[in-house]
Structures
1.
Amino acid sequence: MADRFEDRSLVKHKTDGYSGWVDGTTSIKAVFTGNMDTLFQYRVKLVNQGGVRVAPHEDLELVRPPQETPVGRRKKTAADFKKETDLFGMGYRVTNMDREGRWRVLRDIAIPKIGVAAVVHTILGNMGVRSTSENNAKRNENALFEWNKDLCWMIEKYPEEPFWKEQSVSWRINTIREKLRTFQIIKEYIPL
């Protein structure tokens, strides 16, 4: 394989024609496109469209190398890849992404690829880890608030999913939400 593209390099997909900035790599095979026999593929933040695509090295061509290296940026290690969820690898994030962008990733990429149940379990896992104490919840208030909004959106968008009726799922959702109401992080939610 040729040299790796550096983060923030401007690249163009050779056949699909989209352009974007390299935003790291992912090793999650569920989101791979094209050549599946690689150890990783690039996450590409799309120019003028919002969202993220994933592509192997051979499907991309360099348009322009990065103009500057961000301060404090470090190379990813194997431990970093274990922290990455399938959802993150598909472009979903609460930081620097508005609700419409997140819902577009959920609706068009994540839910068709891994299903409502896997998406909800990932979001609940994130919420659970970040709400272990009131201090922790206050530090992560914005993310917890936005994840709750995303859960509400999925409950409204996919009400017929049998997944919502599973006792363990409804118990987990309600337990986390009640904790967040106690900590005054959320005031509203759509009941199951």
2.
Amino acid sequence: MKKYSSGLVSEAFWFIEFKKMVIMRHQGCTWDEIRELYVEQNMLAMPRKQRAMRIYGYLKGRVETLDSEISEIFINSDLQTQKTVNIISIALKNRLFYEFLYEVYREKIQTGASEIKHSDIDSFFRKKQEQDKTVGAWTEHTFKRLKGAYFTLLTESGLLKTQGNKKMINPPVLDESLEAYLIKSGSKQLLKALTGVDI
């Protein structure tokens, strides 16, 4: 089982950059070729090479969670499905975020709640602090940054919609091919986490 990580404080949704990398891999580009573009030629337009390397590493990790079948689905799907695949890759890389989707987002859908509040995320983090020593050692500043990252990722993926100061729940209507893939690949729990629907 993966260890809990607060790494999402350093990440963003990076949809355009993720999409380009998925397409390049699907077209047969090697990781060396992609690294050359992203880092050496600074396709990410980062002010420092070290930052470009880190972002390249984060994106590479996401893309590596995808097999050829879901990559094909991604390339041939609409914008919302592509954003959903990106959030799936983030969840597959980060255990804590995955569990947040399943334990909080899914439950909110199932209970008919209309929004996710700051207190919902705070409560989730407190529970994890009590359950895990690693999470228990994190500072309040880390949790504040993580909460901001979660809201940003969920909003940019379309899973939340901003309405004034509220973050309204907006479950995705999954493309049939993506839904079938998640079921076939043994990812029913992730499907439930995103849609709230028990399969």
3.
Amino acid sequence: MRARLRRESFLGTIQRGIPIFTRVALGMVLALILAGACTSRSRSPYHTAPHAQRDTQAAQDCNAKGLTAVEKGEFENAEKHFRKSLEHDIYYAPAHNNLGLTLLHQHRYYEAAWEFDCAAKLAPDSPEPRINLALVYEETGRLSQAVSEYETALRIAPDHAVAMRPLARAYVKTGREDDELRQLLEKLLLSPGEPQWDVWTRSQIVRLGRTTPPAAPFPTPSD
């Protein structure tokens, strides 16, 4: 199944006005940790101004232009805007995250992981960078690391469906069939979600031995 870019989580949980976008699909949510990478000036790919000259407003403006380019499918142009955003303010977490997702879309996994790690360090209370870093691990076949990052994201935001979904999928990929997986699936089914995820979740509950999955309390929106 071809992955799609969605705007549903652009705002994330950091704060309004600093968008984050996440790549979402049933087969792969799209969504390597380099210790100290974000704070190592000698390894930074950006030409940053001194701390006193940071221009966060300019960084926000460039980030917004990058998101507009993403919506048009202009990923190379989006990358330029996100990098320019970070030249204005290297500590602007949303631009790191959004640049990472642009790189992930281009299968540039090492660079994407670098950006997600920076975003996670700069915005430790936001689950999105952790989810996205886990996506890099998952796409490159490192499931144990992916599970660890998904679990960290879920500890940050315990009811975050965008974290629960890929964690459940990763558990299934690793062959887990225990009560913890079943409880996670049932909790996920009770959360408002996308139809394709509801179908997958119900099928996994049935596979684990429950023939009648609990009905979700929210109506499934019709197309």
4.
Amino acid sequence: MRAGLTSAMQTEVSKPAVRMCYLVELRFDSGTEYHTTCYISISYAGNTYLGGNLVSVNGIREALPLEDRAVTIVLAGSQANLQRALTESYVGRTVVVYRALLDANEALIANPLQEFLGEIDRPAFQEDPAGDAALVWHVGAQFSRFEKVSGRRSSDDDQQLYFPGDAFFEFAAQVDDQIPWGRAS
């Protein structure tokens, strides 16, 4: 058995048929959205995860905690979802994905398992041949942006873009490249 499963979840997993769904939290500045891959809405931890809007969650897999992982979350291309992607500040916003099990009556079995914690990287829009639209959130794990370069440089020109009139890097180009840290010059 996988570590972290409650006894109720272990009992359910041992059955011949298992009903599984994902619960997804998208934490935006304007508020948190709750979605589920289940066709019905599910209540968990005082929140209602809306059913029928979350098409799929792709890329969930077990890995070492520091390994770079990426997940895609596909939402139906409703007007509200598309509007959010076009107007909301989304880069770096937190996403939490839980794996939940349902019993034969489609009731949530206690304590879904957190499968993924990451940050939104970028959106994408898809359209299938039938003309149905979808919003795809590309989400990276917590350490996915660890090696990305921020784009900032230690130059006066770059400093002036962000802080006009600041003279901190005014003489940076004149500094000798060899700085004798910890030893006599």
